[in-house]
Description:
Layout: H1 4-10, H2 17-26, E1 40-41, E2 47-51, H3 59-62, H4 67-75, E3 96-98, H5 102-113, E4 123-125, E5 132-136, H6 153-162, H7 165-168, E6 172-176, H8 188-193, E7 196-202, E8 211-216, E9 223-227, H9 236-262
Parallel strand pairs: 2-5, 2-6, 6-9
Antiparallel strand pairs: 1-5, 3-4, 7-8, 8-9
Amino acid sequence: MFNSKLIFSYMQYIYQQTFIDLINKFASTPENPTDYYIGIGNPNAQILIIGKEGATKDPEEYEICWATQWQKKIINNETGNLSYHNPLEKNGTYRPFRVGDTYTKYQKLHDYIFDEPHTPQKKFEVDFFKNIFITEMNINRGRNSKETSKLGMQKRKEEFFKKSEFIQHFPIVILACGPYIENRNKKEINTIFNVSFDKEYKSDESTNAQSFWLHYNADKSKIVLHTRQLSTNVKNTLLKKMADVIKEFLHKTEMVQQMGDQE
């Protein structure tokens, strides 16, 4: 049984100045009333997941996790963002997701990383937001990637991802957005996240559909994993392999920090 008090303890964070600066930069103003999508989850987490785009156009969800909504929470000194599209609904209960939903894949990945028990079921209840912050490569919304506008995506890559100190501070970045970002010809991943390609991991040797590509920064204090959108037919073997790489990185990082503390 889920303990609702647990999520509150995880979400009692203090907003970092880098996050506040990002929100203030993109929040709507009388001169520029257009709001801007930021993301959801714990802004103090070590893990950032970047998906393709949000699927829903629900009016209530549409206002959640945008710059102006975050700005109100910061001004009012509110922690956590308990709302329709977060770990708890407004009445304090879980929102269930179908097995093929992207959020259930994020939950499985989270559980593999943090060694939390996971019981397969037809509808999942998610709480990965406590340890992860998620955003989207494309600011436009739509249920079908082919039909969703990509207008403004290149600008978002530059202004929101590359130039944001908040985004750049994450030591673990998961680009679960497939072809929305590339690193073969344009070297977007290298340029935006200041990393270099290390190696390809295949969880299924018969196909590239269950693979991811690992990148490190110069001193190996940051990793970027590039893979497909985590939904539908993504296999658990891919999620487990990604989790193993992330856990190994976290272990090494922790050891380096401990050695530094002893000096």
